[in-house]
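Tokenised fold entry reproduced for everyone:
>
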Amino acid sequence: MWVGSWRPHKARGPIAAFYNSPGPKYALPGATGPGYLVQPNITRTGKDGTPIYSLYGRPKDLNLFRTPGPGQYSPEKSGKSAHYSAPAYSLSARSKGFRNDHTPGPAAYILPSVLGPRTVNKTSAPNFILTGRSKIGSFHEDLQKTPGPGTYRVIDPCAYKYKPPHYSMTGRNSMPGDTTRKPGPGAHSPERVTIASGKAPVYSFGIRHSEYMAPLIVDVLD
């Protein structure tokens, strides 16, 4: 359902909003650089060094300092810090730290023994201890437990001498050969090769894709 007298129709002529502009051919020059905005106090020898003075008012204090007068002091309350006074004594309760007596009692000490060979302040007689006979060097020593030549670890002579070249031989795991797939005669198309032989010119028909070509208007409304 259409509203009003407007109906869809083809445009009578090209509309510029439907196409892109090629853009300007020449770029516009830029603005003036800093060389044209030279300050007036800059000379060829540098900045002008003429002294400049300015007047400024003294700032006001935010909080005025109020000096205390004679009535602000109370010398009678100074006490012993400013006047001589007689010694004074006071009685107070015993502090809590002295209630628990941490002095060790008699059972806390371990006195050295007064009997036996380990007496500290007495001379003791020589003591003798009997132990078992060692099997090393005795008549019942088992000589079969003597280590043989294979018990010792011999160091490789290459560690302290020149090392000769070493070679190793391993088994072959797979047979040598090429396992790639070779193309047969039917896999080639020599008639399509145009690099090594001449080729006749080929023509094709297409359409223009220019964005600036006006569309062909066949039906024009009167």
